[in-house]
Amino acid sequence: MLNRTRKYFLYFTCIVFSLFVLNSCYKFEGDQTIPSYIRIDSVSLITDYYDEGSSSEGITDAWIYVDDALIGAFELPATVPVLANGIHKLEIRPGIKLNGISSTRAPYPFYKPITFTNFNFVPDSVLTVGNPTTEYYSNTEFAWLEDFENSSITIVENLGSDTVIKRTQPAGNPEAFSYDNSKYSGVVNLTTEKPVWTALSYNQFQNQPQGSLVLLELDFKTDNYVSIGVVVLENSAYVKVPLLTLNHAEEWTKIYVNLGPNLSLHPGANIYQVFFESALEEGKSDASIYLDNIKLVYRTN
Questions:
Q1: pTM of whole model > 0.85?
Q2: What are phi and psi of 138, to 5 degrees?
């Protein structure tokens, strides 16, 4: 029998590669033709900052379940029609764009669903849920937290790097990520004299059992492309595994990078590091890359 982690991985993978559901998947048993409506404006995250890092999130969707049956996934804010009357269980699962791709929307497996055990549906009425909050599951492990609030940065440059990542200055710099507990961000400046940045996470991370859910969260703002991936130590050799490229973003953007499937392709790798790479684009004289709220997260059984 598959263990819990493996089953959860298969469930998550199936959802990730499904199309974004805009229409109802819920079959109402009965002759009701007038729906009830649920209004959801947004879903926000609450964290214990010292243990879980920033409460920054990129929740874009709400996956709606009634009595454990999927109604659909809806981009927020949303007014959702539901063919239900009276008391039913309502569950809202916070959804994200995995790897920043609209076609791989999915419930985020580390955020708890918002559950109303006895929700009263009233036909032809708009029932406002408003702005509910979620939090991380209690068995979420935070292998890496880097918010650049400390002067010691847990990213180190490789020998081939021309420049380094440093903290924005002064505290509260308008270019920095502005949020609760956030006064600084990481910044990399590329110039024609120093056009290459290549760096690794300072720490090496223990690879989780095959099929585990492992994701990298971060906020970024950049006018230069940035590659992200992992370097795994497998059979006494380091193997570089590129994962994705951050596109230009004028505003701070949250991304969730799925590391799990790629790490599972290297079952012989015991440890790995996260890498970042960028080279000044042709025709530019300078560029700036900003990073913040980096988290490497996974869930235990």
A1: yes
A2: -65, -20
Token digits of residue 163? 């420049």
Please state, in angstroms and rounded to a whole number, the distance separating the CA atoms of residues 93 and 66. Answer: 11
User: CA 145 → CA 8, 217, 236, 293, 294, distances in Å?
Assistant: 24, 10, 27, 7, 6
* Beta pairing partners, 227: 245, 277
Q: Are 197 and 190 in contact (CB under 8 A)?
A: yes
Distance of alpha carbon 19 from alpha carbon 124, whole angstroms: 29
Question: Given CA atoms 229, 202, 207, 134 in this order, what sign does their dihedral have?
Answer: negative
pLDDT, one tens digit per residue, over 16-43 is 434 333 333 444 455 668 999 999 999 9
Tokens of 268: 């012989």
Place of tokens 């380094």: 164
